[in-house]
Amino acid sequence: MPQLLNPVKAATLAIGLIMSAPETLACAFHSYVPEETVVDKMLGSDHIVLARPDPDNPIRFKAVDALRGGTEGVELPQQLDEDTLKRMSSNPDDRALFARQDSYGPWEQLAYLDADFHAVILQVSAKLDKWEFGGDEERFQLFADLHNHPNPDLHRLALQELDRAPYDLLRTLRLNADATAIISALSDPEFAKFLPIHVLLLGFSDRADGEPALQHGLSNAVMDETDLLAGAWATALIELTGVRGVQDVAQTLLSNSDMPSEKQESLIEAFAIHGRSDSPKIVAEVDRQLARILDTTASTAGMVARQFGARGDWSQAERLQKMLKSGSFRNAGTLISVSHYLSFAKEYGEPASANN
Questions:
Q1: In the listed set 87, 115, 143, which residue is the last one of a domain according to the structure?
Q2: Which has fewest Cβ within 10 Å: 20, 140, 211, 223?
Q3: Would the pTM count as exceeding 0.90?
Q4: Residue 237: enclosing H or E segment and its boundaries?
Q5: Does residue 224 sit in the same domain as residue 247?
Q6: Of the candidates 191, 198, 193, which has an alpha carbon nearest to the alpha carbon of residue 162?
């Protein structure tokens, strides 16, 4: 297994390697920064209250309970729209969730809480102090258990939460991914913003149903110039099919040498992610396929250096060192990325072996 860095060293290394790239790298999984979730905003707030319509002025909210801070002196400037007033009038146990970052900042309405959503928010509220200093596995498992929830608001919140989870953590969760439901959501415009996390979840689904969809998705992503999710499809395919998935992704890369460099790098990123797998067979196959790719296309060496180096994986150091000494690199960006990788590998890595 590759030696892992502590968070400070890993962050420093990732910045150094990405800065060595000739251009900004496209993320394999997103073309955007995932938005803050209700939970993120609760974690960043000093004052959190639940509200109902004010009996003395029904178009205004009145704080009726506090999850952080108190209700005394709380004045919520937001007004109820007609639909919310009607819904709350018909459901006396429903609440609106409000928060502000400090004692004097503006209030923000975070969510409408029906009974199901209210119950989850109470669970979250009880964990806020713990989650401020860790507890990521507990937090994301809570929402992994909810990502198939029939309540559409909870379903969306669960997807938003999982969308923010680091992949190494995502693969440790009990996900119970439903391939049929995910495949349906992939083509639903209403869930377009959740396409990356749905692709990744498909990698944890049933192999018989998930594999054809992943093969098709990867093929389309490679051919479609506007598709930015080749890395996600590749990562999910390897997750679901193991060694054969590594082989399929490698063949896709080798058979499409004219694909944009950003897409090539997103497939290399999938290898780097699974190069940290708990399966020795997958790690060994990643290494074998990288040898094929580097022997065939030396220009991918910079991609390998950036993606493996950013994860503190020095397994490619000996191979890249031999290529450097043989004068395989003609591109300045590749040369810089490989040189940085080898420098970091010497400082932080164990003695490198191309077969480790």
A1: 115
A2: 223
A3: no
A4: helix 230-241
A5: yes
A6: 198
